[in-house]
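#lab-general

N.A. 3:47 PM
ok so I finally got the sequence cleaned up, no stray characters, all 205 residues accounted for. can someone with queue access submit it? mine expired

B.Y. 3:52 PM
send it over

N.A. 3:53 PM
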Amino acid sequence: MRTLARCFLLFGLVVAVPRVAAAQAILAGEVKDRTGAVLPGVTIEAASPALIEKVRAARPDIAISGDFIVGFPGESDEDFTATLSIVDAVRYASAYSFKYSARPGTPAALMEGAVAQEVMDERLQRLQARIAEHSLAFNRATIGKDTRILIDRKGRLPGQMIGKSPWLQSVFVETDAKIGDMLDVTLTGAFPNSLSGALRSAAAA
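B.Y. 4:20 PM
back already:
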C-alpha cells in the first residue's frame, strides 16, 4: 500500500509542480509468506496502467524507472509472466533487475519453493531483454530534443565528455567543458542505456 500511496503522491506532485524531476521510480510487486499469503504491512501494490497514463498525461516526457528481483521463493511461471506484463504496461525507461539470493536471518531465507538457478537465469535474461526494448524505445524518442546535461566525467575517446540528462541517462558529447559544467545539447543518437548529443552552448554550473 505504501508504494501505491507513493504513486498517487507522485501524480499530485507532477500535476502541481510542472518542473518536478523528469525521472521517477515506481515499484511494483508483493511479498508473500511460505503459504503464498501476502505478508501484512509489506504489500506493494502494482502501479496501475491507468495511473501511469495520468502521470504521463501531466508530464509526457517523464522517465519511469523500477527495480525487479526474479526467482523469489514460490515465484511461478504465472508470477513471472505478470512481471513481464507490468514491464510492458509501464514501459520503463530504465530498471535494475537481479536474481534473488537468500540472506541469512531473513524470513525469505526460510521459505519453501526455492526457484532453480537455471530458471532464475533464464527469467532474468528474458526480463532484461524486455526492459532493454522499452529503454531503447524511450531513448530513441528523445532524438532531436534540446536539453541540458550536467558533465560528470570524461569519456573514453579524446575530447569526449559524459553528462547526465534530465532522465538520468549518460549523454556522450564532444566538448572541452569541465566536470561540473552545464551544457545545452541536441540529442542525436540513442542506445539502450545512453544517448549522444551535439553541443549547443555551455555555461559554468
